[in-house]
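Limitations

Structures in this collection are predictions, not experimental determinations, and the ligand pose is part of the prediction. Treat each record accordingly. The example that follows, with calcium ion as the small molecule, is included so readers can see exactly what is and is not provided: the inputs are given verbatim, and the output is the predicted complex.
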Amino acid sequence: MRRAVIVGVLVLGACGSRLATQVDGGGDDAGTDAPLADSPASIVDGQACGALTVVLRDFQASHPDFEHALGDDRGLVQPVLGTDNKPVYAPAGATTTVSGATSFDQWYRDVPGVNMTFTQPLPLTESPPGTFTFDDQTFFPLDGLGFGNEGNADNFHFTSEIHGTFTYRGGEVFQFVGDDDVFVFVNKRLALDLGGIHGAESQTVDFDASAGQLGITPGMTYQLDVFHAERHTTQSTFRMVTTIDCFIIQ
Ligand SMILES: [Ca+2]
Ligand SMILES: [Ca+2]
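Predicted complex:
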């Protein structure tokens, strides 16, 4: 375990130039319970390990799901990720914070005139050893970009998605603290649901405790997909903490 962590940090430093690549949002349904092609052994061969790439989509405040009614809104997504690796809207119609499937389906898909897409690195910091964190309490990665700040001090109203794979070794946790919505899928199964327009909230995935629900077995490699939405002023906080020692960008 310790060797793997050290290798991951070294590769992070060596692979920084690879981070500004477009994430492939295409489907990969094959073998969710089988080892993927990039086994941990490939880490030492220079795979992008220990750093993440985030796909950001900027929206305007006028979008029907943004600056809408406030409140927690769990159950917005179905418990299994879609075949295109996007969340599937679950309710039959509108909820307190979402107009419906048509508007929700725009959150993580490129829709000309509705959103504008950007890709940025999301560097993880290791401290203490074995714990990897991205923490930004003023998370405004699109200030001055996309539709601009729309009269606000920062550019609110955007979504983000992260796609990676990791090898489950046993004992891992994944915590998110922030606003607004966050959905985390492990092995394409919903592991964390912080849906809704709200202040900073926290949930933690305990991989061992959830192993049965998630269908994961130590030693195997799985998808991890994170979806987030910033839907309301005046805060945007994004804190992610995990003991997964190596993400490989997909
Ligand atoms: Ca915006
Ligand atoms: Ca917010």
